[in-house]
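FORM 7B - TANDEM STRUCTURE REPORT

SECTION 1: FIRST PROTEIN
SEQUENCE AND TOKENS:
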Amino acid sequence: MIMLNHSIAKKAIAGILAAILVAIGAILGWTLTQPAGNSGELQSITIKPGTPTKAIAEELEMQGLIKNSLVFRVAAKLHGVENSLKAGEYAISANMPVRQMLMIISQGQTAYQQFTIPEGYTVDQVAILLAEKKLANPEKFKEIAKDFAPFSYMTSQPNSRYRAEGFIFPDTYRVAKGITEEELLTMMVKQFDAKMTPDLRQRAAEMGLTLREVVILASLVEKEAKISEDRPVIAGVFANRIKHAMPLQSCATIQYILGYPKPELTIQDTQIISPYNTYQNMGLPPGPISNPGSAAIKAVLFADETEYLYFVADKQGKHHFSRTYEEHLAAIDQVQI
């Protein structure tokens, strides 16, 4: 009887312990699914490379994003991600369950994404870049860009392609995921507005140019120049041709019409009927043909004073400048050698 009672007692104790463990597991499981608070406000947390899980958990607890750092560490271990939490900057809120936080950090779902718009990109090219980064629907981006003009100087002629063309400032941007196409455009044209300092605006006024005219000319310079030192000289050539009532005859405007950079244009190309064709139409095209950077804009505002009226690029992209058409023809022969 004594032996039987002892066996029963052991079983009873084992059952109690099992029940306790189940209860602890249930409590722990419940804890893992319960957020630390009700606030959905996103807080930024930066995890540097090599940061241990313990330090990450303590930082989350200190910011009030989790209830207990130990629970976070146990959860990380149970989910098999203890050693795979990735460095980066994350947006975490107190109403996120620990499981969700672990998924975000272990999968490297950083809060922000960085992208760079190169100088001279068109609206079409920017749309493709943003689509590749999974930040925008390219067709929606282009549709909004057609009439997007939050600043008065972005007025356009009826036959211009995009009112936003030329004012999307080439730069490196850091954006939150989920940003809309309109928010992207707003951010980029605001950057242009900020880069156009009072001094630059004053210089444009002194030259008798509107900001839009400056940007149109800068967009031509941006697409024509392959070497930085050529920019102010090319800008000077365009200024001289306008002064002498000569068509600008910019190959870059034909390429804009075609939609791709054709290395060598034909006579037929220069005869395409389009308001952007500066071989057939006098003066500036109806809008910018690219989004120029600061260097191209400053090249227009501080163009070289020169007597040149023509230029042609050699195979290395270096431009050769001429005063007369005869000199220009000789330069063309020279660069083709």
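SECTION 2: SECOND PROTEIN
SEQUENCE AND TOKENS:
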Amino acid sequence: MTYDAFPAPDGTPLALHATGDGTPLVCLPGGPTDSAYLGDLGGLTARHRLIRLDLRGTGRSAAPADPASLRCDRMADDVEALRVHLGLERMNLLAHCAGANLAALYAERHPGRVHRLVLVTPSTRAVGLPVPGGLRLATARLRHTEPWFPEAYAALEAIVSGHGDDWEAVTPFSYGRWDAAARAHHAAESLDPVILGAYGADGAYDPARTRAALAGFGAPVLVVAGEVDVVAPPRVVKEFAGLFPGAEFVVREGGGHFPWMDRAEEFAQVVDGFLRE
């Protein structure tokens, strides 16, 4: 893996991590957090050079002088600066979770700079699609045979009803398999509450404008959902896919919010096949 730094438009030093060989695939993490948790995305490095961006203020990217620039819409300029730094006329772009909001805003502003777009278990805030609490609970009930289900489901019910905030207890619902690998993956994640709050602050999103822009987006799009993903249930993710003209929508059977950790080889094959079409 190689590490490189480049300046954002406001001068903030940003970090990228490149690994693998082949066609470049720019990867935007969710969170917002650093990109390490993406790993090799199920083995995509075998055929693609993954270029992971650490969002400003995370990982090896510097904290900006202006905290307001941590807002998602402001970070779209960082993605464009990365493209220019890489010398790519157009780029393949993959985004996970909250990174999909950033990717949607980038596609809105720079549609001609995206060759192919992959959205993995995306957040739908930028396009104004809420996730009903009842849908989260219904998706969670697909895991009712798991030994950890009773405690996790009770915590999720409390959160959905507005009477609880034990997010740690519901973590197993984010993974297709709550095994040692999933526990280690979760333990390595870190979210800064200040950055988290700033990312989606007032003014970050204009859903009507973004939806209108995506309706005319001409690049091929793949949207991937996880069958048992409580964070981004397939029904809402399918609605997101429907905002693009002719997007390909795939549900990973048994997949959670990090579907490259569930049947990694199959996930990589789906994404690789789309990028090679």
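SECTION 3: OBSERVATIONS ON SECOND PROTEIN
The beta strands are 2-7, 13-19, 23-28, 48-54, 91-96, 114-120, 221-226, 248-252.
The chain has one domain: 2-132+180-276.

SECTION 4: SIGNATURE
Preparer initials: ____
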